[in-house]
Amino acid sequence: MLRSNWFQVLLALADAPAHGSEVARRVKSQTEGSTTLWPATLYRTLDEMSDSGLI
């Protein structure tokens, strides 16, 4: 099962590639502000997803 942050990042990247700050903005927008990916969390999540081959 995907972690919640991973799912939100995949949704944020579904339409187009984006840099980290844009991914964070998209996640916050698509969750109507209920999820904020702070830089440490965001980049750790992106690194883990990359290592897993998801992105």
Describe the structure in your own words:
There is one protein chain. This protein has 55 residues and is mainly α. The chain has one domain (4-52). It has helices spanning 4-13, 20-30, 39-51. Helix 1 (4-13) crosses helix 2 (20-30) and helix 2 packs across helix 3 (39-51). The longest helix is centred in the C-terminal third of the chain and has 13 residues, at 39-51. The model has no long low-confidence stretch (mean pLDDT 94).
Entry keywords:
single chain; 55 residues; mainly alpha; 62% helix
Mean pLDDT over the residues: 94
Termini separation (Å)?
Answer: 16 Å
Q: Tell me the helix content.
A: 55-70%
Number of domains: 1
Radius of gyration: 10 Å
Unreliable residue runs: none
